[in-house]
Design a protein that fits this description.
Layout lengths: L1 H34 L5 H11 L10 H30 L10 E3 L8 H8 L4 E14 L2 E12 L5 E5 L7 E5 H6 L7 E6 L2 E12 L13 E3 L1 H11 L8 E8 L5 H12 L4 E2 L4 H8 L2 H28 L1 H9 L4 H42 L9 H27 L3 H7 L1
């Protein structure tokens, strides 16, 4: 038994020694690479301090620091991508179904051929058309059914996926309507009207305009004008009762919408309204300060992780700093080494956290946009992302200043004697 225990003990010591040798071999790879590189000793020392955790009393939580910085950068980038997408949505009415600048809700009944021709010939008018709607029943709820009739330019449903309806039995559905009905593109369903069901086929998913409190950007059915006319005739509906007709106008580039809307109101003698954002978009805008607060918190968290790593390195590796001083390192080189350590941590955080943040921000925006039914294309804030990268590097330089000063104050004799 004693012989077996002794043999087991020897084998454990041999295995541990092999593991330690392997670990030291892996850890020594970076110093060998840096040692043979032409970069200055201060730079190589800083990079090595940033990436090598060390052992024993000189161990530094490098991995946790890198993870904290990368997580902070990823969160910051994700928030910026999401907030930029929200801003782009609010500034682009076409993304929530209103691809025009002016709405004339009471003008359709007086929209004669003469007045229509006058607006068609107006060079300041880029898009002109009518939007007709009626309520119908799909499943257990009433949904607005639209038809878009362009007279000039483009007036149509805002497509998110698929294509526009081309035949009388084809429709585009809103995201919520599609989801609530359990339908997908290519499916067929029955739209209920008083005279019976009407079979239709889904060819696309879109965002719909909101003209009153009953509407929602993700709720609606879009038919062709001929399809809606056939549906209304089959239901016995005329333009004098259940059909709602609205004239919409989109101004040419360079035309001030506010001034043009006021002039159009004076010309037509009817109320002219700007394209209204749906309630869901307004609700998102009301909480747009929350992403900014979250971004600030994540930035502070990343800075704290960086500062903790630098201070811990200076405190636990005082002996290494003292040895460097004995080999000829002057105080500016010590400062530079700490600065390069901070820069390396920041760069690794950007390289790892930046792409993760972009992916997370775009994914989060797609989920929110799909939930309310708007165009789910995320923004690409390249300028802001570039500023984040520059800001991270500048913050790393500022955070590194106090630890670098501490490292420069290490007394060689005192540090070596204490070890």
């Amino acid at each position: 038994v004693l012989a077996v225990l002794s043999a087991w003990r020897v084998s454990r010591l041999t295995t541990d020694a092999d593991d330690a040798t392997s670990s030291r071999s892996r850890l020594s790879l970076l110093p060998r690479l840096l040692g043979t590189s032409p970069i200055s000793p201060a730079i190589s020392t800083g990079i090595r301090s940033a990436l090598e955790p060390g052992r024993g009393r000189t161990a530094v939580p490098v991995r946790s620091a890198l993870a904290g910085i990368a997580f902070g950068v990823a969160g910051l980038v994700a928030v910026v991508v999401f907030a930029s997408s929200l801003t782009e949505l609010a500034d682009t009415p076409g993304r929530y179904g209103a691809s025009w600048d002016a709405v004339l809700p009471g003008f359709a009944s007086r929209f004669t051929d003469e007045r229509g021709a006058e607006l068609v010939d107006d060079p300041t008018v880029a898009d002109l058309g009518t939007v007709t709607s009626v309520l119908a029943r799909l499943g257990d709820e009433d949904v607005p059914v639209f038809a878009f009739a362009p007279l000039k330019g483009t007036v149509s449903v805002t497509l998110i996926e698929g294509r526009e309806a081309l035949r009388e039995d084809e429709v585009v559905l809103g995201s919520r309507t599609l989801r609530d009905a359990g339908l997908g593109i290519g499916d067929t369903f029955d739209l209920s009207i008083p005279t019976g069901p009407v079979p239709l086929r889904v060819v696309g998913r879109g965002a719909f305009p909101v003209f009153d409190e009953r509407g929602a950007v993700g709720r609606g059915v879009a038919l062709t004008p001929a399809g809606l006319e056939a549906l209304a005739a089959r239901a016995g509906v005329s333009s004098d009762d259940a059909l709602n007709e609205t004239v919409v106008v989109g101004w040419a580039p360079g035309v001030d919408p506010v001034t043009a809307n006021a002039e159009l109101e004076e010309r037509t003698g009817t109320q002219v309204l700007p394209a209204a954002a749906p309630a869901d978009v307004n609700n998102l805008e009301q909480v747009e300060d929350l992403p900014r607060v979250l971004a600030a918190f994540l930035a502070v968290m990343a800075a704290v992780a960086l500062a903790h790593a630098l201070v811990t390195t200076v405190r636990r590796r005082r002996r290494d700093l003292a040895v460097l001083r004995t080999f000829g390192f002057v105080r500016p080189q010590v400062w530079a080494a700490v600065g390069w350590q901070a820069a390396t941590l920041a760069i690794v955080g950007l390289v790892v956290g930046g792409p993760l943040g972009i992916v997370a921000g775009r994914a989060a925006w797609r989920v929110v946009a799909a939930g309310i039914g708007v165009v789910d294309r995320p923004a690409d804030p390249l300028l802001l992302l570039g500023l984040i990268g520059l800001g991270v590097l500048l913050t790393a330089a500022l955070v590194a200043a106090p630890p670098a000063y501490m490292a420069g104050q290490v007394r060689t004799a005192t540090a070596l004697r204490s070890e």
